[in-house]
Amino acid sequence: MPLSSSCASPRPRGAQESQTAWEHNQIYSQPYFDNTTKREVTTTVGQSAYLHCRVRNLGDRAVSWIRKRDLHILTAALLTYTNDQRFQSLHSDGSDEWTLKIASPQLRDSGTYECQVSTEPKISLAFKLNVVVSQAEILGKSELYIKSGSDISLTCVVRETPEPPSFIYWYRGSNVINYSQRGGISVTTEKQTRTSRLLIARALPADSGNYTCAPSSSHAASVIVHVLNAEHPAAMQHGNSSCSRVSGLTLMQPLFAAVLAARLAVR
Predict the structure, then answer these.
(1) pTM above 0.85, yes or no
(2) Rounded Cα distance, 129 and 260, in Å
């Protein structure tokens, strides 16, 4: 008489392998983030910013972008859920990348943004955006006095810019400085150091004016240059130096002395 047993019969080996394969596929078919994308982005005011979120195995789930400070949903899939039309979701068919574009960003847009996938529970990845003000600076004082026949030497440095400027233009007044207009004008620009140097050799009074350094995606900087025929050594920028400058008050002191001497002579 066969012995009875209350134990369940062991599952066939093939069934166990099928279950293991199903569980493996379930785990690896779930959406997950590609963490090789850049998680911190710095841009300048007015220069469009892009946050790139890459999601593998998305399937039929949706990707949303959330602003962390107020938990506002900015976009879901390709739809924008804010009245601020500067925010836009970018995506190409067949791509794993969902990009949040912020057009004309302002300082207030700095902060954390989350890329969120509609799994259960939801998964998200944080991105940090830094918006900075980029400003050009012409080294030295804002007003220069140059002796006629000396060189005008101006050095411009671009501050607080995440990327080297694509160009740096020099203006005199409202016109771009024309190198062919006269000889002796040269500009040396080093993009990696964000520096540009303007040299005008043997300056003439006609070279006087407002000189502006205007880099791409940065606020411009200006300096007023006076090229004088008269001898006022204390007020001059001698040779190639841009450091020997004094105020207009120092320039006028010899004139005051001459006027006072004339009045005393009349008395």
Answers:
(1) no
(2) 63
